[in-house]
TrEMBL record, chain A:
UniProt-recorded name of the protein: Branched-chain amino acid transporter
Cross-referenced Pfam families: AzlD (PF05437)
Origin: domain of life: Bacteria
Regions crossing the membrane: 6-27, 39-57, 63-96
Membrane among keywords: yes
UniProt keyword list: Membrane, Transmembrane, Transmembrane helix
TrEMBL record, chain B:
GO biological-process terms attached to the record: L-valine transmembrane transport
Organism: Planococcus versutus
Compartments, record wording: Cell membrane
Annotated transmembrane regions: 12-31, 64-83, 127-150, 156-174, 183-200, 206-224
Domain of life: Bacteria
Protein's UniProt name: Branched-chain amino acid ABC transporter permease
Length: 101, 231
């Protein structure tokens, strides 16, 4: 691959870094209005919802794969298990399921 | 640097490292089939460190799309991190600007989720660096490993591993959701709006996630304000 590839990487690196860095460096020490602070506190849970749905159902062409995986993860998580157990447990279950299919 | 905080961060970041393993591995595999060298594939993971945009870049390279468009696309996909880091700033302990500028590089969907859902009141810089270092190491190393091993991993295992990141998101969300209707509504409404965008294809993935997150966060804030006034 030629030199354009490295320019592209540089460009990708810059546009990825900017939205990550500006709020952390420029907002430091500035009080935001209370409603804005509240909205920002809501964001972690909202973004998790958007990251999970609907993408979790389409991890494989067979939609059941994602459905079973999502329910497995949910089931393990609701028992209060550690995140690592949730991840490894649902991988193990899907490995068994795809072995059976 | 506070060693205790740092090692707690490494521990918290390990679940991300596990989640990244299959995705980075697959990225390495795909990069190889796209025609990138080991060095080029690994360099992209080292300098960009953004899963979704790297995958999209590969498919755009295959499609012969101009590099400038690939960069623009990366920007649109990653603009959601602006929201995340603005939100995270509320939770982080104040520290030197250069330190924050340094760990800002490592804020991804996953490191953000782990940091933002920590129960402690303020998150220290060493903790954040611990989380980010272990995640980043996994991402970079397994990109190379994926490129090197080719498609030698059994197919059923590759398929099963595609659940990893979502399982992690679920594992982070569920404990905060239990007995908390606000958290549950925030996640469900955002997921519902994002599904709407997904099926109608009105917005590309990056924008869809950003708009649904904001809409849900603002809506719930608006509802709870009204509730306070009414009572």
């Amino acid at each position: 691959m030629s030199s354009w590839y490295w320019w592209m990487i540089l460009g990708m690196a810059v546009v990825t870094y900017i939205p990550r860095a500006i709020p952390l460096t420029f907002l430091e020490g500035r009080e935001l209005p209370e409603p804005v602070q509240n909205v920002l506190r809501n964001i972690p849970y909202a973004v998790l919802g958007a990251l999970i749905f609907p993408a979790v159902f389409f991890i494989q062409e067979n939609i059941w794969f994602g459905v079973i995986g999502a329910f497995a993860a949910f089931g393990i998580a609701i028992t209060g298990a550690n995140v690592m157990i949730v991840v490894l447990g649902s991988i193990a279950l899907l490995a068994i399921v795809s072995g059976l299919l | 640097m506070n060693g205790r905080e740092f090692s707690d961060g490494v521990k918290a970041g390990t679940s991300i490292a596990v989640g990244y393993f299959p995705i980075a591995l697959t990225f390495g595999l795909l990069a190889k089939t796209t025609g990138l060298s080991l060095l080029e594939a690994t360099a992209m993971s080292i300098f960009v460190f953004a899963g979704a945009s790297q995958y999209i870049a590969l498919s755009l390279i295959t499609g012969g799309v101009a590099p400038v468009i690939i960069v623009l696309n990366t920007f649109v996909v990653n603009i959601r991190h602006f929201l995340m880091t603005a939100s995270l700033n509320e939770k982080m302990e104040p520290d030197d600007k250069w330190k924050k500028a340094l760990y800002a590089f490592g804020i991804t969907d996953e490191t953000f989720s782990v940091l933002a859902t920590q129960k402690n009141h303020k998150i220290t810089t060493p903790f954040a660096i611990g989380v980010i270092l272990v995640a980043y190491a996994s991402w970079v190393v397994f990109t190379s490993v994926g490129h090197l091993i080719g498609a030698n991993l059994p197919q059923f295992l590759q398929a099963a591993m595609s659940i990893a990141l979502y399982a992690m998101f679920i594992g982070l969300l569920v404990p905060s959701m239990r007995g908390n209707r606000k958290v549950m509504s925030l996640a469900l409404i955002a997921g519902a709006i994002n599904s709407l965008f997904y099926f109608t294809e009105w917005l590309s993935t990056g924008w869809a996630i950003m708009v649904s997150t904001l809409a849900s966060a603002i809506f719930i804030e608006w509802i709870s304000r009204k509730g306070v006034k009414a009572s």
